[in-house]
Amino acid sequence: MSNGSNATGTSRASIAESNRSRILQHLYHNGVSSRAQIAKALDLTPAAITKITAQLIDVGAIQETGDMEGAKNRRSIGLELDTAHFHVIGVKFARSLVRIGVFDLAGNTLGIEDMPPITNETIGETVTLLHRRIEELLDEDDLIVAIGMAIPGPYMRDKGYTAVVSSMTGWRNVNFIDEFTHAFRVPVFIEQDARAGALAHYLFDPESHGENDLAYYLVGEGVGLGVIDNGHIVNGALGAATEIGHVSVDVHGKPCDCGNVGCLERYCSTPAIRQEIVANGEIVPGAQSMSNAEATRALFALARKGDAKARELVLRTARYVGYGCMIIFNAFNPAHIIIGDIVAESGDLFLDEVLATVRGRSIPELYDSTRITLSTMPTDAAVCGAAAVAVTQFLERPSTFFDLG
Amino acid sequence: MSNGSNATGTSRASIAESNRSRILQHLYHNGVSSRAQIAKALDLTPAAITKITAQLIDVGAIQETGDMEGAKNRRSIGLELDTAHFHVIGVKFARSLVRIGVFDLAGNTLGIEDMPPITNETIGETVTLLHRRIEELLDEDDLIVAIGMAIPGPYMRDKGYTAVVSSMTGWRNVNFIDEFTHAFRVPVFIEQDARAGALAHYLFDPESHGENDLAYYLVGEGVGLGVIDNGHIVNGALGAATEIGHVSVDVHGKPCDCGNVGCLERYCSTPAIRQEIVANGEIVPGAQSMSNAEATRALFALARKGDAKARELVLRTARYVGYGCMIIFNAFNPAHIIIGDIVAESGDLFLDEVLATVRGRSIPELYDSTRITLSTMPTDAAVCGAAAVAVTQFLERPSTFFDLG
């Protein structure tokens, strides 16, 4: 019987790809490992390991690192996926900002830059510029193997455009799939931004690395959510699941551009925060002429200095973020909720009130078994997340990146 | 090289089990198929099919059906999973009711019975009786291969008990895993009731058979949800995900026993409906002395006759059920929401108002691509769902049921 026809098996090609991916992921998550260690961890036969690793070494995906201490003190050769040897580009889109980063596979930032500020009128221009800039980066750096992009939700993942929403008005005419997927010498992968942030924490964050039931709760210009349930990203039929910003916390509340009423986003996103600042007699002096992010950051700074009105608004915002956590608890029951983006800069006053809100409203069993933390990723989790989208594909579909026959 | 060591493969045992399961599922969903058809559909080699099907025939899991019309007019032998040849027991638990059904693998009801009515004081007794009754059923019917149980949420799936809640107060001291898992000659599988309902529609309902992005929205004594996302049941870290009954639709609303405020369940479950009936001057005459289910059914009957007050309350209930659909849209983006349990008996007046509510509040792209229907399963979807939990395990883990070496 040839190797190609195994009597217990699925088609050779799909098993081989799945096993290559599992080996890459093992090396990615565990570092230098011997063939025997991989065989044991993945329940693969020594013959399979020998064959697949030879192929991966051959195409340059992994390499031998020389002797390492083996089991029972026998010495054996280590294998390594050199995360510094492959680079990816991450692109984060927002209403008025496109940020580009170059990262290695471990999520280390090699460079980061913002495109010129964008208005609805300059979106076409920005897209043209972005194409050009990505081409330049690809020319400069041969190690780049993939591009990831992060788009604010509701992003229709399977169709390529954002549905609604005010925060991305001008971008609605761009079909990201048509525009970018096949535009460059390397493949492009596109994901909703909070889902990309969840992948970033899963892959790059020492605080949540490899957690199989993880939620990344983005509270910034918009409010978004990415959920990993038992190792699977929750996508929904059109890829429009986990749109927590448009879950209503008050069915009699403020109308939202999405058509719904009382959407969470209307209470704790930075535009909502700035609106409250201005409506309450400019809690932050000069807020009227600040951007949403600037006004929000200024509010946090004032609250830290003890300003009573600023503290009050921070606490109110935190309660709404807590109501969002309650939705996440009941809808997804993750082991860990990571709150990220601008609001994660707010600090303890904020987090304590989020926790108090959740403690007061949840089942003790769930409260006690769910961690809620602020993101501590050094770089913008969405641009890092765009890179994580690319890295995830690199690890899951090696044959897209290497000539593996 | 022996069959046991395939150079492309994972461990023989796990591949073999996975392939057996895929073949059983193929036959379950597609009916009589030739080996060539299965090989093509599952991307398996002919050698693998020959070996695995021989083994499955040998232990009696599947059988040959004689000649069938093959491709290119060659005749070939059909294989069949005879769904009438294996039976399962489904047990549905509720506050005051335990219902037991015997089903075949296709979900056909062979028998159904209710245990005597239950109060908090008689739960211990009920558990003892249930053990005895299941033993009798197992003695009477050799074809029974598994038992499934459906428990109202929030059910801590990985721990075995219900967290909170008023509707199951007396049951909180029962650990279902300890009590039942290893109690009988056949294995027992336990699931939250709405998740079981989702599996019932996935397996048994011609209207939604095999739909990979499916939500079963249980609106009855409680409000629950089961979601299949891309073929995976969404469970959460402790198995307490998709608890939509305790997602708040109004953060300033009615307090709930779970600790949260404004829980959906407080507005459209049958206890909430009965409360409204009574609070509004007994819209249903005699409602005070009726059970929640009786009062709700009487309300629906009155509304159908055109009673204005009854219609008004049905429409109000439908709007809240619609708000719940909006949560499901934004959290899970399923392709199909099936509304089931007592409220599914309400008919068109109700469904039309649910649809109008959702249409008015959702993104058109999502509304247009999501079906919302009332369940048309002939039997109580939760007891049928309990059976579906058992059938799912039968199809996914054949080696639990047959001596497959």
Largest interface: A-B, 73 and 72 residues
Structural class of chain A: alpha/beta
User: What is the distance, rounded to the nearest whole angstrom, between the alpha carbons of the first and last residues of chain A?
Assistant: 20 Å
User: How many domains make up the 3D coordinates of chain A?
Assistant: 3
- Assign the CATH architecture of the largest domain in chain A: 2-Layer Sandwich
User: How many helices of chain A in DSSP terms?
Assistant: 14
* Oligomeric composition of the shown chains: homodimer
How would you describe the shape of chain A? globular
Rg over alpha carbons of chain A? 23 Å
Number of strands of chain A: 15
Biggest sheet, spatial arrangement of strands of chain A: 6-5-4-7-10
List segments of chain A where confidence is low: pLDDT < 50 over at least 5 consecutive residues.
1-9
Mean pLDDT of chain A comes to: 89
Strand count, sense and barrel status of the largest sheet of chain A are:
5 strands, mixed
The named CATH superfamily of the largest domain in chain A: ATPase, nucleotide binding domain
Percent of residues in β-strands of chain A: 15-25%
CATH topology type of the largest domain in chain A: Nucleotidyltransferase, domain 5
Organism (chains A, B): Bifidobacterium callitrichos
Pfam family, one (chains A, B): ROK
Protein name (chains A, B): NagC family transcriptional regulator
Family (chains A, B): Belongs to the ROK (NagC/XylR) family.
